[in-house]
Design a protein that fits this description.
Chain lengths: 259, 239
């Protein structure tokens, strides 16, 4: 078995900083993601885990550090100054790492199938017919083929999120970003979405998942990162994080969620 | 007792209809320009530099606070003194477009900013450019929101365009005034003029409703009509 460190990383982050004025949300994140890994980010709210994810696809602009994705340098520091790659390279990278949002963010004026084909047709300029066929396969996989012509407003939260996942998959991405994908769902709808994500993990997709679903993270994650105070306070396997936490902050966090 | 001469109706109708055609042309042209002005100003105000934003805000404020009639009179009678001389029809189009454009810029600004920020982010996260996000996500949704209000402004414009009769444009109102001066039959003539304005506005409001319906996705059509239709005269347009 090849250890993750030996494979060349798909995503490589060094010293990533994000500050809003004097408010430092990220204070130097180092992270390397190998293809096929599922990485979970847990931690208290306001700790920076969502900001980290949103900096990786540049929905938030980092203020320092380096990000390399699939061999392309998207931002770095040179002579003490922070530099970003061209807008085009950033868009090309985003296309390969679509995000699934807490609030789903489906295009509300488009039907389910239109939502799914939007990216491939508009961004990747692929022909509509094959994309439609693929979209139907994806819809079938998330169990919502019969909703192809429904509008987002006609769906439940769980259904919306599964459509959002299908929309991301339609890009044929190298990496999937999940920003608290089940936090806005009614409890009885969470399982369906987690199930969809579990299947993706079993297929060997590379995913970064910010979540509060600890049990799910423990069961699925090849690596779990505890984010607090803008740093990766502790990283490790589910066993290391949940059974043998080292840092006092993580120990406190584990205790608080066990209550 | 005033005697109503019905015989005057067929005799003068063609002359009035000529004016009605001018009114429609004037209103449609002004509306096209007003929508363009409104959209550009709305965009300039959301994404522009401070100076541009200030200039647009000043323009909107002036147009809202000065009577439309004065704007028309200044364009037609005063601009020639500084070398800008427009024929009455185009002076009318300019005045009406500037006036309605200012109001529409506010309508569009509200409509554009009502589109969910998350959906724009979703577009970006798929690799769309800012322009693609605007054209594919923001604009279609903002337009649907703005259509009823824009339609209401069009109907108000159709009627307010009668003010151009003050600057020698042969629109419906002016044709009527000319006839009255000729015949001294104000009752019959005003009746016909009012009826033609009524018919034009009625057709326009039904058309707007139809357009609105066509732009409303199925899931929104289930709502009671009152919550999505706001056709009527926006009182703010009164010059």
């Amino acid at each position: 078995m090849v250890s993750p460190a030996a494979a060349s990383p798909l995503l490589h982050i060094r010293g990533l900083h994000k500050a809003y004025g004097s408010n430092h949300v990220l204070r130097g994140i180092d992270l390397s993601i190998a293809p096929g890994e599922v990485n979970f980010f847990i931690g208290p709210s306001g700790g920076g885990k969502s900001t980290l994810l949103r900096c990786i696809n540049f929905l938030e602009t980092p203020t320092g550090g380096e990000i390399q994705f699939d061999g392309t340098r998207l931002c770095h520091e040179e002579g003490g100054r922070f530099k970003m790659a061209s807008e085009q390279s950033i868009r090309a990278a985003r296309e390969q790492m679509p995000m699934v949002f807490q609030q789903f963010n489906l295009f509300s004026h488009r039907t389910v199938i239109q939502n799914i084909v939007e990216g491939p047709v508009v961004v990747q300029r692929r022909a509509l017919d094959p994309v439609m066929a693929e979209a139907r396969v994806l819809l079938d996989r998330v169990g919502l083929l019969e909703k192809a012509n429904a509008y987002p407003a006609e769906l439940s939260g769980g259904q919306k999120q599964r459509i959002a996942i299908a929309r991301a998959l339609a890009m044929k991405p190298r990496l999937l970003l999940f920003d608290e994908p089940t936090s806005a769902l009614d409890p009885e709808l969470v399982a369906g979405v987690l199930d969809t994500i579990r299947v993706l993990a079993e297929e060997g997709r590379t995913m970064l998942i910010v979540t509060h679903e600890m049990k799910f993270a423990a069961r699925l994650g090849s690596k779990i990162h505890f984010v607090a105070g803008g740093v990766l306070e502790e990283s490790g396997t589910a066993h290391q994080i949940f059974e043998a936490p080292k840092s006092p902050r993580l120990q406190g966090f584990i205790r608080s969620i066990m209550d | 007792m005033y005697e109503f001469f019905f015989i005057l109706i067929p005799r003068h109708l063609p002359f009035l209809l000529e004016g009605a055609v001018v009114t429609v042309e004037l209103s449609l042209l002004s509306m096209v320009f007003a929508i363009t002005i409104g959209l550009l100003c709305a965009l300039g105000r959301t994404s522009g530099q401070p100076l541009l934003r200030w200039a647009i805000a000043a323009y909107v404020e002036v147009m809202r606070d000065v009577p439309l009639l004065i704007v028309l009179l200044v364009i037609f009678f005063t601009l020639p003194h500084i070398g800008i001389s427009l024929p009455g029809f185009w002076a009318g189009v300019l005045g009406l477009s500037l006036n309605v454009g200012a109001y529409l810029s506010e309508v569009f600004r509200a409509a554009l900013s009502s589109v969910d920020k998350g959906e724009k982010e979703a577009g970006l996260s798929l690799g769309m450019s800012q322009l693609e996000v605007f054209l594919r996500v923001t604009l279609p949704q903002a337009m649907r929101i703005a259509i009823p209000t824009v339609g209401g402004f069009f109907i108000a414009l159709l009627k307010d365009s009668s003010l151009v009769s003050f600057i020698a444009v042969s629109d419906l109102m002016r044709q009527g005034t000319i006839l009255i001066a000729d015949t001294f039959r104000s009752m019959e003539i005003y009746f016909m003029v009012a009826l033609i304005y009524f018919c034009m506005s009625f057709v326009a409001s039904r058309t707007v409703r139809r357009i609105e319906h066509a732009f409303t996705p199925r899931y929104l059509r289930k709502l009671p009509e009152a919550s999505q239709t706001s056709i009527g005269r926006p009182d703010v347009l009164v010059g």
